[in-house]
Every structure is written in C-alpha cells, then in structure tokens.
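In the previous chapter we treated chains in isolation. Here, by contrast, the input contains two separate entities that must be folded as one system, with a combined length of 538 residues.
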Amino acid sequence: MIGLNFVYTVGGAAFLAFALLSASDRGNSKRWGNAAFYGLLATSFWAGDLLGDIGNGVLVLGLVAVAGFKLMGRGTQATTTDTEREAEAKARGNRVFLPALIIPAVALAGTLAFKYFPAVFDSKQVTLVGLTLGVLLALAACYAWFRPRPLTPLAEGVRLMDSVGWAAVLPQMLASLGAVFALAGVGEVVGGIAQGIIPDGSRLGAVAVYALGMAGFTMVMGNAFAAFPVMFAGVGMPVLVGIWSGDPIKVAAIGMLAGFCGTLMTPMAANFNLVPAALLELKDQNAVIKAQIPTAVPLLLANIVLLYLVSFL
Amino acid sequence: MWVLLGIAVIVAGFALRLNTLLVVALSALVTGLAAGLNPVDVLAAFGKAFNDARYVSVVYLVLPVIGILERHGLQQRARTAVSALKGATVGRLLIGYMLFRQATAALGLTSIAGPAQTVRPLVAPMAQAAAERQGADPDSDRVPALAAATDNVGLFFGEDIFIAIGSILLMKGVLEGFGIEVEPLHLAIWAIPTAICATLIHGSRLWRFDRKLKRESAAVAEVRA
C-alpha cells in the first residue's frame, strides 16, 4: 500500500542527496555541518521508526548541536546569473510557471481521487502521497523540458535548502515541543487560566478567549506553530468542542489563522517583521509591525465572529 | 504552574538571541523537569514526537523543482507579472500585489515572492515612486513598511489554502492526537473565509491610504497657497 512509507522514502532520498552534494562542496567551509544536518534528516526519514524514542531524541540533539554551534553555512552550488535568467524568462514566458503548478494540481487531484482506491493508497495519507507524486511528475517535466544534467535539480534544491538552513526543522521541533507541553500538562494549566477568564455559560466568551489566547500566545512564542497545540488542547478541544459541541476542523483551522494575526504583531516573529525592515533599511525596526497592526486587530475580531458563526452549525 | 517555566525559557532565549532550535530544546527540557519527568523520559518523548511529526518537513521535497525553475527564470517571470501591475496609485498597486501573493501562496508557491525576492527589488520602489507622484514624503518609512506588511498579509492568508503547507499538516497531526482523522483539504477550505476577510480589511486600508495621501497633498498645497 502506498502511504507514508513511500513519502518518507522519497523524502529520505532527497535529504541524502542534499547531504552528499553538501559534503562534496569544497567551496563551503562549513560543508561537513551541512552534510551532517541533512544526513541526520535523511536518517530520520528512512530509519526513524527503527531508532526507538531515545534514538530519535539523540538524533534531535545532533540537529540542535549542528545549529547551536553554528556549524552550517551557505553552499556554493553553481547556478545561472541574473542576466541568463532574464533571458530565459523572456524566452520561456509564463510557461515557466506550469511545472510549479503540477505540484498543487496533482496534490489536489490525488486528495480527491486516491480515496477510491483504498487497496492501493493509504486513505489517511492521500494528500502527502499526492504531493510527493506531484513533485516527482513536476521533476520529470523539468527534466524533459530543460534537459539539465542529472544532478542539477538536486544542486538547485540544496541552494534553496541552505538558504533556509537549520530553520527548516523549526516547525517540526515546535510540533514536538507541543507534544512535550501536552505531556507536562501545559495545555491544562493555560487552559485552566483561560477557562477561569471565560464568563460562565458564555459561548462568545469562550470563542473570544480561544482566539485572543491563540494570538497572544503566538505573540509570546513568535510562531503560531508553537501556540496552536497549547491553545487547542487547553481551550479549543475541552471547551469549544467538548462543552459547546463545535466542529473541531473549523475550530482548528480558524484558530490557527487567529494565531497568524498574532504573528503580524510581534517582534518575536523576526523573520517576517524585523528582517524585512532591515532589508528595506527602514529607520524604525518596528515599522512593519506598526503597518500591520491596523490590519491584524480587525482581522482577529473577524476570526472571532467567524468562529462564533460557523463552528457550531 | 511551574510547567509554564518552559514558556519563560522561550521568551528569555529570544531576548538573548540564542539559536532558536537550542531554545526549543531547552524549553522542552525545563518543561519536562518542572512536570517531574526525568531527562531521559523528556528526550524520549521529544524524540517520539519528532519522529511522528516528520510529515511536517515533507514540504521541502518541492525545493528541487522550485530551484530548477528559478534557474530558468521563475522569479524574473514573477517580477514581470508584478511589474505589469503598475497602476497609477500606491493603493491600487499594493492591492494588486496582495492578490498576486495570496493566489500564488494558495497554490503552494510561497517562495516565489517575499521581502528579498520581490518587496525590496520591486514592490517597495514601485510603491514609493507611485506615492511620491501622489505627493508623499520620499523620506518616510511608511510606504516601504506598508509594502512589506502587504507581502506578509498576502502570504499568511493565502498559504493556508494550500493543502500541503506546514501549518495544515501540523493541525492534522494535533487533531490525530485527539483521535480525529481529518483530510488536509477540509482544513484548507476553512482558511478561505478568513482569507476573504483579510483581502477586504487590508484592501480597504490600502484604498483609504490613497485618499489619505490626496488629502495630505491638498493640505500641503493649501498651506503653500
């Protein structure tokens, strides 16, 4: 059956290629750090289920060590110059968007279609399988159209991967932190505090505390990924779904977006708010946040209204 | 209450500008110890969760495709598409850019635009030039800041419509933890109402910004007269 094993096999192969290409990149003085980081991720994809919980924990410590000791650098993969790219863009026109569109098209089609073939596809993982197939098809289209050397797409992938660097595993790390928070009962403590604030028997009050808590917690943590598991476990699930019989899908989806409103208002989300201010050489490093607050506040209110109107239908 | 120390660790770590992965690991350790777990159990719990959450990192599979397309002019073509937006006013220009950013992010093309890719080289200078034609102060931060803000709003409230973005996969994982099986598509559909609200709220701000510039330049002209 085609499911996560297929997805993780392809994922592991990609990271192994990233590791090998990084290791052979003599122009990068930190090439062994990059190779170790991507090698650990390849190991995780291919052998994560065989390592055991403590083994996976040690693997994470390896990733943290590479990042914490600043052992990663930007690779020196050869790519085209801006002039060459301008010429290519002119020659190829809007068709250059097409291979990129194969990915969402196949992911969407797969999500809808694979469910009818439960013998072939794991029905719980249709989107990820569709995404992976979409990437493979898009790559095939690129090979057929551009006729690159076999390793060129992977080298271009490393170039982009290096620009993300250690931050690539941050979402996965924050999801794992959420699991430790859940084990330690952080959700219950935060939920207890939040539930103490909710006026008795007020559905609107519960919705407001959930959404404002999501945004506020995101502002503290700098990322909705870290806030979501805590607020969902603390208020969303026990109160909005448990007491008020809300639809967990809508509560989750709109709650996450309430968190995104928090991301717009915090300097902790440095990559979105402080980095652009620096790139644009603004005098006030908080100028982007100040420009976002008048959108974020009414949008947060809109999310509260949406949650209140659609979650309990 | 002591388990909230892990949150304090995160705030302190950001304030001290420590590496974020290190801060996350330290926060997990402190939280676990505060809850009375031993360090090895915390390590195992974190390792298990990390292994269960691998699907969050599957999104990087798209990088070789984006990379080879960039090699053949994807970003340059995206810039041509954006510069075709050259409307007469800063408000209309930024509304057009926001729609472009939302639509492409909803298709998973989150990295074809951004502060470095489009805002600094293209959107901010075009917006500034338009604003100056409308009589805005060339030394002010507010137009470039508004351009960067528009990029973020378009990205945040477009990307969640794509079914294989990290936040959707994270929600799927968390819901599974509660025994609720969910298709990413159903989560993505419920990102659409907020996306529409974001377009309306930010779009109306941009529209009013044009009128504000008009009023300001009229006021300046009146003082001169």
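The radius of gyration of chain A is 22 Å. The CA atoms of residues 10 and 102 of chain A lie 18 Å apart. Compare these points with the single-chain example from earlier in the chapter.
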